[in-house]
Amino acid sequence: MPDSFRHNPELSRYELETNGLLSFADYRREPGRLVIPHVETDPALRGQGAAGRLMAKVAEVARAEDRRIVPICSYAAAWLKRNDPDLIA
């Protein structure tokens, strides 16, 4: 089953569903910035790259909206540093 990425504005987060299990990134929008205070993945998905795939989608959203990312979450910060450092605010 492929991943399903969605924006959940009611909870202010982006979600990635994989085989019925959820990974999510909480966010706060600021002018020109997307603040990511928390990223979480269902424990059953850990080690399978789900959080990385979620962050790749979040990076796509930020780029499409011409925003830089403020990674408060240590995972988000590490992922951005390794994969997309130009997006870090």
From TrEMBL:
Keyword annotations of the record: Acyltransferase, Transferase
EC class (word): transferase
Record-linked SUPFAM superfamilies: Acyl-CoA N-acyltransferases (Nat)
GO MF annotation: an example: acyltransferase activity
EC number of this enzyme: 2.3.1.-
Domain N-acetyltransferase positions: 6-89
PROSITE patterns named among the record's database cross-references: GNAT_YJDJ
Membrane spanning residue stretches: none
Name of this protein: Acetyltransferase
